[in-house]
Amino acid sequence: MAVGHNAKAIWQDLQTDHGFDSSHESVKRFVRKENSTGVRQAHPTITTEPGAEGQVDHGTGPMVRHPKTGKSRCTRLFAFTLGFGRMSIWLLAWKSGSKEWSELHEEAFRRLGGVSRVVVLDNLKEGVVKPDIYDPELNPVYRNMLTHYGATALPARVRHPDRKGKVESAAGHAQGTPLKGKRFETLEEVQAYLDAWAEKWAGLRIHGTMKHQVSTMLEEERPFLMALPMEPLRYFEFGHRTVHLGGCSG
Q: Quick one: average pLDDT of 25-44?
C-alpha cells in the first residue's frame, strides 16, 4: 500500500509469491479499512452491440531504462478496449506521434483478430487536429489508418472522459495493478510482463458488470469484428512544403 498498489495487485502478488489462499474480497476489505476512498459518484453504463465499438486511451507507463541514454524514463501506455466484451489490449511505447499512435492501433487490431466499426478516442493531437462536437478534424495519418481498416473515429466531447469510461477504467487498472511502483530494464521486458499479466489475470477475470469471463466474451464478439485488410498500411508524412514557382504548373 505504501508504494500505491491497489487491493487487486496486492492479492495477486500474495497468491503468486506467497501462496496466499484467502479471497480478493478479504484483501479489499483490509485496504478499504486502512485507506478509505470516500463516496464514489455513480455513472450510467453505456451498452454496445458486439463489434460495434472500441475505446482507446493513453497514459503514463512505468519507468524503463532507455537504450540510448541508459537512464530510466517514463514510457507511454496505450490501451484499447472493446465496448461489448471489455477485452483490453495494453501496449507500451517510448513516444506517441501520429505514426506511433496509428501503429499501436494496428497492433491492437491484430491482437484482437479484427476491427471495431467505431473507435472512440479523446482529443489528443495524434488523433484529432481540431476538436469539434459536430465536425472534428482528424489527424491525416490517423484518418488514413482508420480508413484503411474500415473504422470510423468518434472523438469524445472535450472534458467528457465518461464517454470512454471502459478504456479509462482499463488503463487505470493496468497502471494501478501490475505496473504501479515497478521499474524495468527494457521495453520488451515490461511488454512481456504486461502480456503475461493480461493473459493470467485480466483476460480470465469475471467482469463486474457483464458477469462473464472477459476472454470468453472476446470469442463471442470476434465474429462480429471487421476482418483485417489483406494489404499493409503504407504510411506517409503530412506537412506544409514550400515549392518554388518554377515547380508549379498552370
A: 73
**Residue (of 134, 135, 149) closest to 56 by Cα position:** 149
Instruction: Enter the C-alpha cell of residue 170.
Output: 482499463
Neighbouring-strand partners of residue 119: 54, 153
**pLDDT, tens digit (0-9, with 9 covering 90-100), for 176-227:** 999 998 999 999 999 999 999 999 998 888 877 778 899 999 999 999 999 9
Do the Cβ atoms of 177 and 9 come closer than 8 Å?
yes
**Tens digits of per-residue pLDDT, 92-138?**
999 888 999 999 999 999 999 999 999 999 888 899 999 888 888 99
Q: Which residues are CB-neighbours of 103 under 8 A, at least 6 positions away?
A: none
Helices assigned H by DSSP within the chain = 7-18, 24-34, 98-112, 140-149, 165-176, 187-197, 214-221
CA pair distance 193, 184, nearest whole angstrom: 10
Given the C-alpha cell 489475470, which residue does it identify?
A: 201
**Cα–Cα distance, 218 to 147 (Å, whole number):** 24
136's grid cell? 472534428
Question: What domains are there in the chain, each with its CATH number?
Answer: 1-36 (no CATH), 53-224 (3.30.420.10)
Give the amino acid at 23: S
Kind of pairing between the strands at 128-130 and 137-138 = antiparallel
